[in-house]
Structures are given as structure tokens and as C-alpha cells.
Design a protein that fits this description.
The structure is a homodimer of 451-residue chains. With 451 residues, chain A is mainly alpha-helical. Chain A has 22 helices and five strands.
């Protein structure tokens, strides 16, 4: 059943009227991801009833699992402790770890929920928390369908049929007596193999795997690079600990990209539309103060040329044109190179060639736009000196901007910094200052030469 | 086998030495995605030999299929026609369409390759080209494993075993006599169902599907939203035409994201590190000229205040501080709201609430940074008037910047424009102009009041 405006208003009415029978029948027909989006239109009381309804048809877990971590963090705080307790009864250890891990560890809820878990599950949850945040160990599912390598294909299929799994099966992993991963078989291979072949003989032996402490975004890149639908996580003895699946990877890629786009604007990843204002202010204020200092620094450069500007106020009026254009040239080179690093475009070109190309492009743009700018100022104010200065300084600036813009991310990457973070500020402040120097410097020389 | 620097140099040497036996044995052990990345380090002659080697072990197709379209477009132009002909012999109709579709339709290669295809395959390729570029029809695989709905689970498994498929199987689609899609079964369900149940009774009937003309990026969002690993494509009569798989979706999401990041910097999606300079210049020049005009427009506003700036040159020196800070405030609100739209954060908050929140944040930032700016100028130049003007105008600007920054993407979305494209320029030009007006306007009033 599709979620339409009329369905949602019916659901709202049934929630308030506590018409349980028809409500539960509708809710059981809707896709979990669509149920998740209902949370947006419900008020607190309706949310409470909605969660109760989902719990009673046993669907709260699958609905919450479709919500990305950033959003779920806010939502889970507003779910009541006894509702969360009911939720946890139906979860595997890694699902429980996923939900509890979103709560602040110092909150009483966190401790209370952890203590309601059976001893065995609690141990597994704590094991999961022992991996660093944002690592493969934190996002892997530990319920993996494995088959002993010595079975025949026929026996393997019977095993599969016997153990009706709750989780989807992506690949079938073959293990030996020690639980070590020795190969992987696709379901199709298993189903199509001659019944009496051993699994060991059909399994692919060179399995690409990750360690539980590997960062989740590196795991995501691997999955995307190889077009896998799941990747096994093994410990240092090759023992299979769990798998990371492609649907989690899609979420990670989207989060990763948010982080990159945000870094350009000096924002933290967890600063979203639904973040409380106070948190956003705290997040953004340091960045704004850095900005203030950099802008003041650029102003202090301008201050050196006060006399020149006073003599020809048109220079003060037009200097932002040169600064704006060269800032943009730098940002364009920066974006192309940063994105090239992120999407592995550099597999197809060397770094020197990329820098050279950006500089050719930058200088050509500087030439044409400089000509345009000079013509525009001449037509508007009829001042030849300012026109010539604009042209020369735009040409000079485009060399600096494109060279600097393309080199900064490569250097940051080399130094093991994230090339997306901070490059923008660094590069635009540098081009601002250089453009003020060159534009007003050349103008000062020009004025002297005229006198 | 992993691709290490030493492996790659061995491969290079074997390529030039034409040592075929060891070369082919190494190449057959490396993952296709890793082979694809070898293209970066090979010169034209080596590339030619490498392609021949991949053709002779029948792996060129799978290697090329791991390369995203944008990169493959450049590469495929450099592959020789007779190599491409060999490649096409081994492809399905939709793979052939994928490769040929990357060539410019006016090129002689395009026509020649199309004409070497058997009549039946050529018809299918032309059918694929009949869907608009960037649609689901262009990226779907048409080889789908289907089972007639009336079979029993046992018969279904036997069918599966008989037809050893070349393609991976994601889900099993059930069709009726007319080829209409009537349900979907997972491989696990098929393998674990009681042998004599009919497929119809175990299939999930409400299948979410797309049409071949639906844009690929909408299909990608659906797959990501529902955590599917494949999505069926059906025509208006529910006839199953093909499937779009999650590995293609990961590529689409990455391309989509590149497009968004690029739009912020006024770049076209196909402007990458490996794009020839001339193409990049053509792409970026119109945007730079637009930028020149907008900067000139801002300058013409400044020009209105020439007298004020001449009287107090410090105003000309410091005006960029106010413009810079309010530009940043606007970009931050813009980024948070645009990203919120893209990642469905708005499922968890209303638009009015989001705008209100951004304005509260913006005003608070303006207050604190304004105080900081005023203090800085007072300490540096000791000018009370300029300090007061900075504080007042930063406060005013932060209201305009955060309000405007958060509303523009929402309005663009409402008008069915892409909120990521163009918002940046629009918003920063507006804040530039408003900041010049308010800063110099208030200063002019202040100077008058002093006299």
C-alpha cells in the first residue's frame, strides 16, 4: 500500500480515535521506509500511540532500521523507556547495540536499557561498543549465514532450507572448524551446483574482507568500488565476525557526502534542519569567528593602500570584482580536484597533469573575463588606468587561484588531512589577500607613473 | 590477488615484453575493479596491449562495466574499432547499448558498431536508445530471471538449477502468461519454502516498480529509500522489461552528489580532472561572465556611496568584513536546507520550523560575531562610529542572510527547480548588495548626524 495524503490522514484519525483493528490492518500493509516518514507529521501524543501500534504488530524494529542514524538519534530520545524495552526484546545483539548506541552513554536510559538485556546479549552489545565509533565493527550484522566447507551442495541447500533465516542472505560464507572464513559462494552458485560437489570446491577462495576497526567510510568505498552487495568482517585470525551490507553502505555514502558538502560551508555533519538551534549556534560560532579574523586580516592588507584608494575611490569600489572572480576560479579548481580525489577520478590522470590542466583553464578564464571586466569598467566610468589594472591583476590572480586551488587539496591529502575540510576558507582567504595586493599594488604603481 | 605497486610494475613489464602466458595468468586473478584502475598508469601503446590481453581472457567486458559512465566515455573513445567489435560479441543487448551509447551518435564508430550487431540484438539496442538519456530504461538490465507463477517451489528451484544464469540473481520475479509482473520472491524464500507450495502463494504481491521513462536519479532515491537491492522496470501494462540493480544505484548516487557539489561552484557535471582543458573552459566561461556581471552590479551599489567612503576611507577597508560574514551565514543556512531536501530530513520537521530555526541561529551568530567585529575594529582603529555601524549592520544582515538563505532553496524546490543549482550565486549576490547598502547606508546617516 502506498502512503498517500489520504492514507496518512486516515492513519492520524485512527490513531487519535484508538481504532485499533483497522489501524493495525493498514499499518501492516505499508513499507517500513514509508511508515518511518510518518513520524514527520505526528505530534508527540500521536507519536506515542503510533509507536505502541507498531510495537503491537511487531514492526517498530524494521521501521526504525530504515531511518539513518543522524535522524534516529533525535527520534530515539523521544521514545519512552518502556517502549524501548519492548523494542529490544525482539532485536538481535547488533540491532540492540545499534539502538542503545544512539543514546548518550551518560543518560539513565542508556544504562537502564543495557541492564534489561539478558546476560548473553548484553555481553555481545558491550563487545560491539568496544569497537571505535564509526568503524566497521559498529555497523556490521553479526548474524551471518555460514556453511561448513566440507558439506556438499545438496547438504548446503538442505541446511539453508532448515534454518529459515530472519535476515536476508547476501552471500553464503564458508568456514572451517575454527570459524575461519575460507571462501564465499553466491546463492545462485549453491542452487545451480551439481548436488554432490563439496562447497569448498565451488567457493571463491580469495575473499576481500575488512577488519572490525576499519573506518566505516573506507568499507563503504570498497563496497562501491567492487560493486559488492556485502563485505565480510574478520578478525586478525581470519575468524568471521559479521558482514557489512550494501543498504548500510548507501546510507554511509549519503552521510559521507553530506559531510563533504558541509565541510565546504564550515558546518558539522550533525548540524541538520532538525538540530536544536542552540546546538547549531555552538557548532557554527567558532567557524564564524575564524571567518571574522580572516576577513579582518584581508582588511588589514587593504589598509596598506588607504592613500591609493583615497586618491582614486573607484579602486575601492571595484576591488571586490577582482577578488570575487579569482575566489571563484580557485573554488572551481578546488572542487574539481577534491571531487576527483573522492571519486577516484585520479585513477585516470596523474596529479601533475591535473594541476597543469586547471592552470591552463584558469589562465584562459582570467584572460577572457579580465578583458570583459576591463571593457565593462571603461564603458561605465571611462577610466583607462583602472581598466588596465583590472585586466592585468585578473590575469595574475587566475594563475595564483587555479594553481593554489588545485594544489591545496592534493597537499592536504598527502598530509593525511581530509581535502574537503577547510580547503575552501584557506584558498579564498589567500586569493582575497593576493587579489587586494595585486590590484591595489599595480594601481599604486600606475598612479605614481602618471604623476 | 591484490593490486600492489609491485604487481602493477610486473604487469607493465609483461605487457611491453609481450609475455602472454604469465601476463594472462596474473590478469585472470585480479578483481575487475582493480584491473580498471590500471588504465590510469598505462600509456597509449600499453593500453592497446592491455585491452588485447583482457579480450583474450574474455574479461574486458566485466572490467569496463565497473567504470562509471563519465570516465568510460573518455576511455571508450580511445579503444580501437576492431577491439570494440570483439567486445560486443560477448555482450548482452543492454550491455551493447551501454557501450555504444557512450559514443557520440554522429561518430562513424557509433554507426559501424551498431551495424555489426546481429539484427535481433540491434533491434533491442535501438529499443534501449528510444528511452530518454538518464532514464531507468537506459540503465536497466533486460536479462532478468523470471519464473511462471503457477510453478511449485520445487519446480522453481529446478528451473533455477537448469538455467545457470550469467547475471547475478537479486530477486526472483514471478510473471503470468502475458509476461506481466505479478509478484516477487527472494532466493531465500524459494529455497526455504515447502517444496509443493505454488510460487504464487509465497510471492509478495505488492511490488514497487518504476517505468522505463522514469529518471534514473529518482529510481536511485527509491532504491536507497526502501533499502532494495534491485527494482523492477515495467511498462504501462505491467509487463516486466528489466531491473535496475543496487550497484548501478551506488554509481548514480555518487554522480548525483557530484552534480550537487559542482552546482554550488558553478561547474557542469562532466567537468572532471580528466576533461580536456578546452571543454572545461567552454563549460566555465559563461558562469564566470555571469559572476562578472553580478560583481559589477554589487560595485554599482558601492558607487552610490563614493562620497561616504571618500570621507571615511576606513569604511571602504572594512566593508568586506560585513559582506563576507553575511555571505557565509547565508551559505550555511542554504547548505543545511538544501541537504535537508536532498536527504529527506524534511520528513522530520516542517518547513516553517526549519526557516525559523535558521533565523534564530543566524541572528544569534550575527549578534556575537557583530560584537566581536565591533571590538576588533575599535581596538585596531579606535573609530567608534565604524564599530557601531559594523555591529548594527551585521545584526541586520544576519536576519536577511539566514532568512533568505533558508527560503531560497525551498522556493526553488516549490517552483520545480533544482535547489542545489544557482542558489549559491543568487543568495551571495543578494547578501553582498544588502550588506553594502546597510553598512554604508547606516554609516552615511551616522556621518550626517555627527556633522
Amino acid at each position: 500500500m502506498k502512503l498517500t495524503p489520504s492514507t496518512t490522514s486516515i492513519i492520524k484519525r485512527l490513531l487519535i480515535g484508538r481504532n485499533n483493528r483497522p489501524l493495525l490492518s493498514i499499518l501492516s500493509k505499508i513499507e517500513p521506509a514509508d511508515l518511518a516518514s510518518l513520524f514527520k507529521i505526528l505530534n508527540d501524543r500521536e507519536k506515542h500511540l503510533f509507536i505502541d501500534a507498531l510495537l503491537s504488530i511487531g514492526r517498530l524494529k524494521e521501521v526504525l532500521l530504515t531511518i539513518p542514524d543522524g535522524q534516529l538519534k533525535e527520534l530515539i530520545k523521544s521514545i519512552e523507556t518502556n517502549q524501548l524495552k519492548k523494542l529490544l526484546q525482539d532485536t538481535s545483539a547488533d540491532e540492540a547495540a545499534h539502538f542503545i548506541g544512539l543514546l548518550p552513554p551518560e543518560s539513565p536510559k542508556y544504562k537502564e536499557l543495557l541492564n534489561t538485556l539478558p546476560e548473553n546479549k548484553k555481553r555481545k552489545v558491550l563487545q560491539c561498543f568496544s569497537y571505535p565509533e564509526g568503524s566497521a565493527g559498529r555497523i556490521m550484522q553479526t548474524h551471518v549465514f555460514t556453511l561448513p566447507a566440507h558439506l556438499s551442495a545438496q547438504e548446503g541447500l538442505e541446511e539453508l532450507r532448515k534454518k529459515a533465516q530472519k535476515e536476508s542472505i547476501y552471500y553464503i560464507y564458508c568456514t572451517n572448524n575454527q570459524g575461519q572464513l575460507i571462501g564465499v559462494i553466491s546463492l545462485r552458485q549453491l542452487a545451480t551446483a551439481p548436488p554432490d560437489t563439496t562447497l569448498e570446491s565451488i567457493a571463491k577462495k580469495e575473499v576481500i574482507s575488512v577488519s572490525p576497526t576499519d573506518p566505516a567510510d573506507e568499507v563503504a568505498s570498497l563496497v562501491a568500488h567492487y560493486d559488492f552487495i556485502a563485505l565480510p568482517v574478520v578478525d586478525e585470525n581470519k575468524k568471521l565476525l559479521g558482514i557489512v551490507t550494501v543498504d548500510d553502505v548507501v546510507d554511509i555514502i549519503q552521510e559521507q557526502v553530506t559531510a563533504n558538502i558541509y565541510a565546504q560551508a564550515g558546518l558539522q555533519e550533525d548540524d541538520r534542519v532538525y538540530t536544536p538551534p542552540l546546538k547549531s549556534i555552538k557548532n557554527r560560532l567558532p567557524w564564524m569567528f575564524l571567518n571574522l579574523l580572516l576577513a579582518a586580516l584581508a582588511s588589514s592588507v587593504l589598509s596598506l593602500f588607504e592613500d591609493t584608494m583615497q586618491e582614486l575611490i573607484l579602486l575601492a569600489v571595484t576591488k571586490n570584482i577582482v577578488a570575487g572572480i579569482s575566489g571563484n576560479t580557485a573554488i572551481q579548481s578546488l572542487t574539481v580536484v577534491t571531487r576527483g580525489l573522492a571519486t577516484e577520478d585520479f585513477n585516470f590522470i596523474t596529479k601533475t597533469k591535473a594541476i597543469l590542466k586547471e592552470m591552463i583553464v584558469g589562465i584562459s578564464l582570467g584572460f577572457f573575463v579580465g578583458l570583459g571586466g576591463a571593457a565593462l569598467i571603461y564603458l561605465w566610468k571611462g577610466n583607462t588606468l583602472v581598466s588596465v589594472v583590472i585586466f592585468i591583476s585578473m590575469l595574475l590572480n587566475s594563475i595564483v587561484a587555479s594553481g593554489f586551488g588545485s594544489m591545496v587539496p592534493l597537499v592536504l591529502k598527502k598530509l593525511n588531512f581530509d581535502p574537503a575540510t577547510g580547503s575552501g576558507v584557506l584558498v579564498t582567504t589567500a586569493t582575497d589577500i593576493f587579489s587586494f595586493f595585486s590590484f591595489l599594488g599595480i594601481a599604486t604603481l600606475g598612479l605614481k607613473w602618471i604623476h
